[in-house]
Amino acid sequence: MSITTLPRTPTLQSRLPQVGTTIFTVMSSLAQESGAVNLGQGYPDFPCDPVLPAFVTAAMAEGLNQYPPMTGVPLLRERVAQKIERLYGHRYDAGSEITITAGATQAILTVVLACVHAGDEVIVLEPCYDSYAPNIELAGGRVVRVPLTPGTFRPDFALIGAALSPRTRLVIINSPHNPSATAWTAAEMEQLAALLAPTDVLLLADEVYEHMVYDDAPHVSASSLPELAARSFVVSSFGKTFHVTGWKVGTVAAPASLMAEFRKVHQFNVFTVSTPMQHGLARYLADPQPYMDLPTFYQRKRDLFLDGLAQTRLKPLHTQGSYFQLVDYSAVSDLPEADFCQWLTREAGVAAIPLSAFYADGFEQKLARLCFAKADETLQMALQRLRAL
Ligand SMILES: Cc1ncc(COP(=O)(O)O)c(C=O)c1O
Questions:
Q1: Which of the four pLDDT bands, split at 50, 70 and 90, describes residue 2?
Q2: What is the structure's pLDDT at 82?
Q3: Could you tell me the distance, in angstroms and rounded to a whole number, from the CA of residue 92 to the centre of ligand 1?
Q4: Residue 1 in this model has a pLDDT that exceeds 70
Q5: Which of 155, 147, 177, 174 is CA-nearest to residue 318?
Q6: Ligand 1 atom closest to residue 177's alpha carbon, by position in its atom list
Q7: What is the DSSP letter of 213?
Q8: Fewer Cβ close by (within 10 Å): the C or N end of the chain?
Q9: Which residue among 24, 204, 235, 240 is best mutated to probe the pocket of ligand 1, counting the most ligand atoms within 8 A of its Cβ?
Q10: Torsion angle in degrees (nearest 10) through CA of 142, 228, 217, 280
Q11: Which region among 3-12, 178-187, 367-376, 380-389 has the lowest average model confidence (pLDDT)?
Q12: The pLDDT of residue 4 is above 80
């Protein structure tokens, strides 16, 4: 007699027990259910320059469809190296110091996996992008959270200095900043350089919004300061720069010895990134105008949005960079941020993201994040609804 047992799926002990459905997914589905204008999601609702997909299509038609080199298509790496040198004055070697990644998200995880050993500490400045902490935890590292100054969101170097320990392996910064829309000044970057100079601490500079800095201010890349460039992985994203977030193509620049370790992890994780996309981007990068025009393009949207917000009871904070706008809603409601954003989505028909979602402890400041990377009509419709608050 044979004993039959039902097939059984073994229980898996979670590597990331804290991680659940993100607020972005929650708010986007709520926005859809309620027919709300979705200013929560951080990506454009307008098309990219048609020249860019035409270049990708041409590359496919030319038969550029097989695996590219593991580190990225050589012409794309060369164009990225030229662009960084022209804008920030630091020459990376395209062969050994630039790698093309599957978006900035993969670049960040790969940097963390390459650098962080079990028990190492990594300093993150809160509020911060949601992938940093789970990435550090996956590597077995310890997340050391240092708050940006509430209200202004400027880095507090006394706090960062106090958080440095012999176990600190990496500091992660993000400028222009999601979600606060601040951008680090040259003086702040120099202060960071001075703080890290006596240490062996590495820097991960998340610069995905590098081409979105406004009011004629420069983007101060970590690559522009020799002290920082020597210890930094600088990450950027073509998705953000060229309005193609779904393409998931990004870049990392780092000194050759650091990049060699990065590539060991990249090789056995992603290996290569879509060939025709890389060729299309390489051809498109021959003309600097599209990314040089980006600050003007987004500053106009920021100002259009700000003019409209002036006629609402929401109080905007200053947006120096990125395509986000924080608003203080304390004149409208005393609900906690997550409840306010749900109410705003359901009742006012505009989806926003609570700032508290970017803090591990859900720190509350009565602030919500709105995204102005939207068609003018989308922004106008949202503003019309916000005026009724
Ligand atoms: C600060 C920050 N870093 C990284 C990313 C991810 O970029 P990518 O889409 O290229 O993976 C985002 C996207 O929202 C971001 O806001």
A1: low
A2: 98
A3: 22
A4: no
A5: 177
A6: 1
A7: B
A8: N
A9: 240
A10: -80
A11: 3-12
A12: no
Closest ligand 1 atom to Cα of 237: 10
Ligand 1 pocket test, candidate residues 22, 48, 128, 129, most atoms within 8 A of CB:
129
Between strands 142-147 and 202-206, the pairing is unpaired
- 237 ligand 1 Cβ < 6 A: yes
Helix (H) or strand (E) holding 172: strand 168-174
Closest CA to 237 of 209, 272, 267: 209
Question: pTM for this one?
Answer: 0.97
Burial class (CB in 10 A: 0-12, 13-18, 19+), 117: exposed
Nearest CA, atom 7, ligand 1:
104
pLDDT at 22: 85
Residues 6+ apart with CB under 8 A from 195: 157, 160, 161, 164
Rg of the chain taking only CA atoms, in angstroms: 22
Instruction: Report whether 190 contacts 155 (CB < 8 A).
Output: no
Q: Report how far residue 265's alpha carbon sits from residue 113's, in angstroms, rounded to the nearest whole number.
A: 7
Chain mean pLDDT for the chain = 97
- Which of 22, 18, 25 is closest to 351 using CA atoms? 25
Give the separation between CA 259 and CA 316, rounded to whole angstroms. 40
- Ligand 1: centre distance to CA 295 (Å): 18
Please tell me the predicted confidence (pLDDT) of residue 3: 67
> Is the pLDDT reported for residue 310 higher than 70?
yes
96 dihedral zone (left: phi>0; alpha: psi -120 to 50; beta): alpha
The torsion region of residue 78 among left (phi > 0), alpha (psi -120 to 50) and beta comes to alpha
What the block records as the tokens of 152 is 């202004």
Is the beta carbon of 129 within 6 A of some atom in ligand 1?
yes
pLDDT per position as a tens digit, 256-279: 999 999 999 999 999 999 999 999
